[in-house]
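The record is given unchanged here:
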Amino acid sequence: MIHQDYLASLLRPLGVYDLREGTVNRGELEAYGVRLDHMAGELEDTAREMNLTTAEGFGLERVEELLYQLKEEGYEFPGRMRDHVAEACKVSKSKLSRLKIIRENLEESWRPGYEKGDLAESAAYALAQMPQARQRVIYDGLAAQGKCPSTKSEYTVKNYGDSLAKVDEINCQTYGSGPCVNREAMRKRIMGQDSYSYSYCRQCCGDCPELIRCKYACPMLAERVKVLKEDAKARRQQEKKAAETKSLPKVEQIKALWARFAQARAASGKTAEEFCHGVGIYCPVSFIEEMEQLEQGKARITQDTRLPFGLSCGLSEVQRYVKAADLLGVSLDYLLCRTDDPAGSAPQPEGQLVLNGWMPGGTLPSAGCDAVADFDLGTGKTVREVCRFFNGRFHFASSRAAIELPVVRWMVLPPVEDAPKPVPELGTGAGCVEQEEAHG
């Protein structure tokens, strides 16, 4: 039935529309009817093609056999036989061609899913254009991944197919010419990952950037892989050692700050938990335990270890305060309004013990003073020297020559009136003590 006539038969009894020829209502109705006719035709074609897709194994073959039989009996078919089969089955020539390729070339493992309608025609056509051995590799690989091969899309099977095709083109570039002997392992690697993952298996393993990490690498390169792994391990160890050496001054500073904090807290008689509550620091049990371990020197300290003044307080925050005070030439107590004396310190509560202790390398006294300092000899040992600090550097007490060695730690000495002897220089005996322990 023409849909415009059907619509007119539905609307005419209402008496609302003017459906005479040439009227606006009639024109709109005809336009809707044409669209419905077109849609109905598409639905019929789709239904017919779906039936052909699922039944082409015995439908198209039977039609083609009958036509060839007629031809053998003397019936003439002008033109190509494919065109006559397409006309007899009421399908397009291009679709008939695709179905024939699928029927003839689709590998057996894929056929049950295709015949049940699980495998889309587009995916089946993409597969049928590949060698059957490659189709089987894709099927087995997807099954090994625990996936249902017949539900995969055209995009997925084509991606796998393209990657596998590149493997088949690889020739050995390491040990002469000829086909690559590692193709099977490459195929396993490709089918062991998602179809959209980039595959390095498109070149000789000797040129692959993932050679030392790949478990599918060519066995003929085993010795090279061994050497590369040893070199990589040595390089990582060297980089680790260099990083530790570079971070040593910061680690020493953090150790010194934790030691100073431990001395001050012990002298105050407060527990770690009382300290945290007193300064308003959130203190879960894990943080209290960590504080105690760090105070006692039992926990490993790195340049990123936090300080006891807050969960997010690190060395960089403390260093900024110190740098600000040094830049302005005042004490931190003055900068934080704890005293009005720019060079002084805040008054201590009555009975409070004032402790002196080691200051870490990277920091300097705020004014000239006598000090004792440990210097890095660069051999894993340090040397301790009683010296004088002025003009921003540590100097030998007697010669006043600058000490050209990195400072590991230092401590200010209280002033001594009428010292009987000058302080000997570095390495002359008195005042020089080698410490056997290595850094850290």
User: Anything to note?
Assistant: The first strand starts at residue 359 and ends at 360. Confidence is low (pLDDT under 50) at residues 52-58, 348-355, 420-440. Residues 249-355 form one domain.
